[in-house]
Structure formats: structure tokens, C-alpha cells
From TrEMBL:
InterPro entries with a match to the protein in the record: Hexapep, Hexapeptide_acetyltransf, Trimer_LpxA-like_sf
GO molecular function: O-acyltransferase activity
Entry superkingdom: Bacteria
Protein's recorded name: Acyltransferase
Pfam families in the record: Hexapep, Hexapep_2
One of the record's GO cellular component terms: cytosol
Swiss-Prot/TrEMBL keywords: Acyltransferase, Transferase
Length: 209
């Protein structure tokens, strides 16, 4: 009896706690499109006035999306975190924006991935790294990309269209359309060539004459 009651209450909380375009919580965001949904319970979500989530995007349970360091921080009038249409963001993923994180349409982000446009510097060896001034570098993830579970996208990353990021990869840099990146640090392991299909990239050993 008690277990059943708890399960019913939790199901009701999931239903009434979710954020959609038809509920008042949408007004916290710069934009929350029709059909978009943030599942309950959420992770840490703040800086909503600088976050846009477009139509039919699903944000899973425990996902954290933040703009700025702390709730209530003044960040200016422009969006900082922009998420496109028909995206899916898996359980426990983190998207942390301070300058600009742009995620295109039809992007699938698997659980526990991490995307950020900011990192600490370590220029001064006499000062703890955690208190050195951080540096921001915009992140762009193109339309149709797929990020595998546990992928990490670091500041300055620019992914083209339909890029596959392997699970657990640590990505930094610019990658073209239609490629597969994997590893730590991530590198291109396959590319699509019109008329030839998906072709493996040679390894460093194979490239050595």
C-alpha cells in the first residue's frame, strides 16, 4: 500500500513538475518553444533569462543547464545558451554557458555528457588553479550531431553538421561536417566522402612512411 502510494505520488510529481510551453515556468526562460519539455526532477537550472530552448526539444531527468556562475547573475540581454529544435538531452547531462553555447537542430546528447565554454587557466604556478581567472571560448554544435554517453565538449569546440562524437571522447577544436571523432583527445576516425561512403582515417602509424 505504502509503496504504491509513493509510486503514484512520484508519478504525479513527474507530471506536474515538468516545464513546458503551456505552464507558467516557461516565462523564466528567454524562450521555450512549443512542444519543448524539461523533465522532472531537473538538475541545476539557472540563468533562464539567457537560455533559449526551441520547439519539440526534450530535456531529460537530472539535466543541468546554466548560464553564468550563480542564479541571478547579470549577464546582459543576449542569450548565452541556445538549444535548437527537436533536440534530445539525456539524463544527467550538463550544459554550462558563460559566453556562448549554441546547439543546433536535431542534436542528440546522450546521458552524462558535459558541454562548457569556460575553463580555468593555469598560467601562474604559484596560484591554485581553481582561483585563477577563467577564460571563455564559444562552443558551437552543428545540426544533426550525436554525442555519445559521457562525451566532454571543451571551450572553443566547433562541430559541423552530422558529427558523431564517440562515448567518453574529450573534444576540443574544429571538426568538419560528416565525421566521427573519438578518443582523448578526440580526433577524426572516419569521414564521409560523397560517392565512397564512410571512410576510415589512417592512424599515425599508417601515415608514417
Amino acid at each position: 500500500m505504502v509503496c504504491g502510494a509513493v509510486q503514484r505520488l512520484w508519478a504525479a510529481a513527474g507530471e506536474w513538475g515538468r516545464v513546458t510551453a503551456s505552464r507558467p515556468a516557461r516565462f523564466r526562460f528567454a524562450h521555450l518553444g512549443e512542444g519543448a519539455c524539461l523533465a522532472f526532477p531537473p538538475g541545476a537550472i539557472f540563468g533562464e533569462r539567457c537560455i533559449t530552448i526551441d520547439d519539440d526539444t526534450l530535456v531529460g531527468v537530472g539535466v543541468s543547464i546554466s548560464a553564468g556562475f550563480v542564479p541571478g547573475q547579470e549577464l546582459g540581454p543576449d542569450p548565452i545558451v541556445e538549444i535548437g529544435r527537436r533536440c534530445s538531452i539525456g539524463r544527467g547531462a550538463h550544459i554550462v554557458g558563460h559566453r556562448s553555447v549554441r546547439i543546433g537542430d536535431d542534436v542528440f546528447i546522450a546521458p552524462y555528457s558535459y558541454i562548457t565554454d569556460q575553463n580555468h587557466t593555469f598560467d601562474d604556478p604559484s596560484t591554485p588553479i581553481g582561483v585563477q581567472r577563467p577564460v571563455n571560448n564559444p562552443v558551437t554544435i552543428g545540426d544533426g550531431c550525436w554525442l555519445g554517453a559521457g562525451a566532454i565538449v571543451l571551450p572553443g569546440t566547433r562541430l559541423g553538421r552530422n558529427v558523431v562524437v564517440a562515448g567518453g571522447a574529450v573534444v576540443r577544436g574544429t571538426f568538419p561536417d560528416h565525421c566521427v571523432v573519438a578518443g582523448v583527445p578526440a580526433r577524426i576516425v572516419r569521414r564521409y566522402r560523397p560517392g565512397h561512403g564512410w571512410q576510415p582515417m589512417p592512424t599515425e602509424r599508417e601515415e608514417t612512411p
